[in-house]
């Protein structure tokens, strides 16, 4: 992304899109009973509350009545239908892992089979987005957490910590390309959840081959444990590689969330919060609900002079419903340089 003179002025930035991740599948209900919805009605109401607080994108996971993350697509259909009926304009983004909650005490957290994950393209009603990981990767979500982050929670137990330290993301090239094709055929946007710059480069190569003709709507996930760490140098390196036509959200975990969101807000990027990412206030004096976290970002945006996007505006910013016909259009719309033509020398560029 090119930061020209005036790029930090709010009038030259997109309105702020706030993504809420309020379902926190890594936690058990006893970890934060005041803010972990379990019944279907409570899960639907949580979406409504986040929307009313200012979030226009909802990262969706589902729980069963026993509190564990659901792996039944029928439950996702039920939740999606309930949310659509209550807040029809909210962008619904289903987590492509479906759920990574361990099956039992001490069991390793596993993603579902490739065939089952492909079934996300068959959800009814269809979500606006499904998140996708690129390149098989370690996802040790507890590696950069400190003991205070997990104190008194299920992640603080030896069994819970071990389960979430051993997570991996199966996202090989054949599965990824097929999954993007199926989602696009159903009119569902791919939202890229990227761990580092090498995964961004893989996405660019797919676009250059014409197997990924979609807008580059992405999140930089800086959670450590196989992903980038949330420091200024990693952030600057990643942002510099992202083309100007992309839409970039920043994500991290625990007490890193607020500082990173502050940087995103100042830079004209977009933000994500919620108990899936963090459950604490910055001084750890108490736990902080997803709605409180959204309200905090809304206050900060006002102080920065950056308006929060309405749901209609967020849909336009996110290019919901937009797909491209070929590699040439995809590269141009996303802001990448064009492919090299046979015999072409030097750097490639667009000629007016």
Explain what this protein looks like in three dimensions:
Its cofactor is Zn(2+). This is 3-keto-5-aminohexanoate cleavage protein. Keywords: Metal-binding, Transferase, Zinc. It holds the Pfam family BKACE. It is a single chain. This protein has helices at 40-53, 73-86, 114-118, 147-150, 158-165, 173-185, 197-209, 232-241, 257-267, 290-304, 311-317, 327-334, and strands at residues 18-20, 57-60, 91-94, 129-133, 137-138, 168-169, 189-194, 217-222, 247-252, 270-273. With 352 residues, the protein is of the alpha/beta class. The strands form two sheets. An eight-stranded parallel barrel has the order 1-2-3-4-7-8-9-10, surrounded by seven helices. Strands 5-6 form a two-stranded antiparallel sheet. Helix 3 (114-118) links the parallel strand 3 (91-94) and strand 4. The mean pLDDT is 94.
